[in-house]
UniProtKB/TrEMBL annotation:
Top-level division of the source organism's lineage: Archaea
Cell compartments where the protein resides: Cell membrane
Cellular-component GO terms for this entry: plasma membrane
GO terms, molecular function: ATP binding; metal ion binding
Main localisation: membrane
Part of the intact protein present: 393 to 683 of 763
Protein name: Heavy metal translocating P-type ATPase
UniProt keywords, alphabetically: ATP-binding, Cell membrane, Membrane, Metal-binding, Nucleotide-binding, Translocase, Transmembrane, Transmembrane helix
Lineage: Archaea, Methanobacteriati, Methanobacteriota, Stenosarchaea group, Halobacteria
Length: 291
C-alpha cells in the first residue's frame, strides 16, 4: 500500500501546482545532487526579443528584412523574435523561395535569388564564412547575455542580430535554494558558451553545458549519471523530452509541450522555477514521515 504520508505529500504538491506523474519521484528527489536546467523557457521566460541590430551592409531595417524573409517559415522562438521586430518597424519582407532549417544552428534560405544563412556564428564559421573582423562585436553582444544571429547573404556578412530573453523573477532565489539544499545546479543549452555564462552568472549558476545540440542533451545527462550523480532535469521543450526521460527525475515546467509533459515524472503548472524546490521540499518531508 502507498504510505499515507506520500499520499498526503501528493495532495500538498497539487496545492502548489505540482503534478506527480510517477509514484517514486518524491522518494528519489531527496537523493538528487545535480539539477540540470534548460536555459530558454526554464531559467528565462522563453519570449526572446530583438534588443540590438548591427548593420554592416545597408541599414538595420535592411538586415531585419533579409533575416525575416529567411526565417519566415521557421518555428524557432528566435525566428519569431526577428519577425516580430520586423513587423513592429513596418519592414516589408517576402516569403523565401526555398527554406531549410538546420536544427540547433539556424536556417538556410533563398531570398530574392540570394543564398541566405541566419544562425549562430559558430555554425557560420563552420560553413566557411569569415567572421574574424566582427568577433569583438559578437562577443560584446554575447557578454550582455544576448544570443547572436549572424545574417549572411551570398557569403557576405550583412549584419548581426542580438536577441535577449528575460530571466524569470524567481530564478536567482531558486538557484540559492538549490545551493542551500546541497544540490549543484547546471545549465544546459544549445546557445553559445559566452551568452550562456552571462545568464548563468546572473542567476548564480557555476556550471554550464553550452553548444549542446538538441539530441545531445540526453547523453549529457547520462554522462553525469555515469559519474555517479543522481540527476533531475528541468525543461519545457520538445528538444528536452529525451533528457527528461533519461534523468532520474524529469520535471516539465510551464505550459510545456505535450511531449515534454509525457516524458516527465513531475509537471509544474505555471512558469515559476521555484516549483522545482517546492517539490524537493515536499518530497523530503513526506519521505521522512514514511521512515
Ligand atoms: P536552446 O537549447 O537554447 O533552446 P536550440 O537548440 O533550439 O537552443 O538552438 C541552439 C542555437 O542555434 C540557438 O541559440 C541559435 O543560436 C541557433 N539557432 C537555432 N535555430 C535558429 C533559427 N531559426 N534562427 C537563428 N538561430 C537559430
Ligand atoms: Mg529549447
Amino acid at each position: 500500500a502507498t504510505p499515507l504520508a506520500l499520499i498526503r505529500g501528493g495532495g500538498k504538491a497539487a496545492n502548489h501546482g505540482i503534478l506527480m506523474r510517477s509514484g517514486d519521484a518524491f522518494q528519489i528527489f531527496p537523493d538528487v545532487d545535480r539539477i540540470v536546467l534548460d536555459k530558454t523557457g526554464t531559467i528565462t521566460v522563453g519570449e526572446p526579443a530583438v534588443s540590438e541590430v548591427v548593420a554592416f551592409d545597408g541599414t538595420e531595417d535592411d538586415v531585419l528584412a533579409v533575416a525575416a524573409s529567411a526565417e519566415a517559415f521557421s518555428e524557432h522562438p528566435l525566428a519569431d523574435a526577428i519577425l516580430d521586430r520586423a513587423d513592429e518597424r513596418g519592414v516589408a519582407y517576402a516569403d523565401p523561395e526555398a527554406f531549410d532549417s538546420v536544427t540547433g544552428k539556424g536556417v538556410r534560405a533563398t531570398v530574392d535569388g540570394d543564398d541566405v544563412l541566419v544562425g549562430k556564428p559558430g555554425w557560420l564559421a563552420d560553413e566557411g564564412i569569415d567572421l574574424s573582423s566582427v568577433v569583438d562585436e559578437i562577443e560584446r553582444l554575447q557578454h550582455r547575455g544576448l544570443t547572436v544571429s549572424a545574417v549572411v547573404r551570398d557569403g557576405d556578412l550583412v549584419g548581426l542580430i542580438g536577441i535577449g530573453d528575460e530571466i524569470k523573477v524567481d530564478a536567482a532565489a531558486t538557484v540559492r535554494r538549490m545551493h542551500d539544499a546541497g544540490i549543484t545546479p547546471v545549465m544546459i543549452t544549445g546557445d553559445n558558451e559566452r551568452t550562456a555564462e552571462a545568464v548563468a552568472e546572473e542567476v548564480g549558476i557555476d556550471r554550464v553545458m553550452a553548444d549542446v545540440l538538441p539530441d545531445e542533451k540526453r547523453e549529457e545527462i547520462g554522462r553525469l549519471q555515469d559519474e555517479g550523480h543522481r540527476v533531475a532535469m528541468v525543461g519545457d521543450g520538445i528538444n528536452d523530452a529525451p533528457a527528461l526521460t533519461q534523468a532520474d527525475i524529469g520535471i516539465a515546467i510551464g505550459a510545456g509541450t505535450d511531449i515534454a509533459i509525457e516524458s516527465a515524472d513531475i509537471v509544474l503548472m505555471g512558469d515559476r522555477l521555484g516549483g522545482v524546490m517546492d517539490a524537493h521540499e515536499i518530497g523530503r518531508e513526506s519521505y521522512r514521515k514514511t521512515r
